[in-house]
Amino acid sequence: MPRLRQHFRAGSGPLGVVAGAVILLGLGAAAPAASAPLGPPGPLVNLNDYCADHGAVAHVSNGQTVYCRRVIATDAWVWTYSPDGLRSDPNTRGYTCTDVCRWPDGKIVPGYLQCGILCGDPPTSGDIQSGLADCVASGVAYRECRDRIPR
Fold first, then answer.
1. Where are the domains of the chain?
2. Higher confidence at residue 23 or residue 83?
3. CA distance 82 to 67
4. 57-63: which pairs have CB atoms within 8 A and are 24 or more residues apart?
5. Which helix (H) or strand (E) element contains residue 58?
6. 0.90 exceeded by the pTM?
7. Confidence band for 4, pLDDT divided at 50, 70 and 90
8. How far apart are CA 142 and CA 83, in angstroms?
9. Which end of the chain is more exposed for a tag (fewer CB within 10 A), N or C?
10. Is the pLDDT confidence value at 41 over 70?
11. Could you tell me how many helices (H) and strands (E) the chain has, helices first?
């Protein structure tokens, strides 16, 4: 062993230089690399728009994550807050919403018939009572808020 130590002294021969370089490179590799801050996932899309990239993940203008998911029992795929399939196509729901949801004749749509936060509508009474509305309004992802609701 004494002969090996001799070759590893700083500046002692080619083997010492190679060993020193290996040690320095090894230390550099162990240091954590600085990473850019994570932004919202995927491209910017519009909630409820039809999508062709089945299973893709993107985000909407408020920064929330959306998923390209299938509308159950149809061939339609839409951008939705839910990572699960949708029960109905939000583009064919028959009413429009601003601060309230109304049928084409102007009558207010009862809350139990509304899609609510999931479709970008004003929150339903269920969204409010469950705490989903407050959670999403605080900036927490829809999926996480949904998972917090006791079942």
1. 40-90, 93-151
2. 83
3. 7
4. 63/139
5. strand 57-59
6. no
7. very low
8. 9
9. C
10. yes
11. 5, 5
β-bridge mates for residue 57, sequence order: 67
Cα separation, 125 vs 43, in Å, equals 32
Element (H, E) at 77: strand 77-80
- Torsion region of 13: left, alpha or beta (phi above 0 gives left; psi -120 to 50 gives alpha): left
User: Strand, coil or helix: what is 57?
Assistant: strand
> In angstroms, rounded to a whole number, what is the distance separating the alpha carbons of residues 23 and 30?
11
- Looking at the chain, how many residues does it have? 151
Considering only CA atoms, which of 115, 117, 119 is closest in space to residue 78?
119
* Strand ordering across the sheet containing 77-80: 57-59, 65-70, 77-80
Measured distance CA(132)–CA(25) in Å, rounded: 50
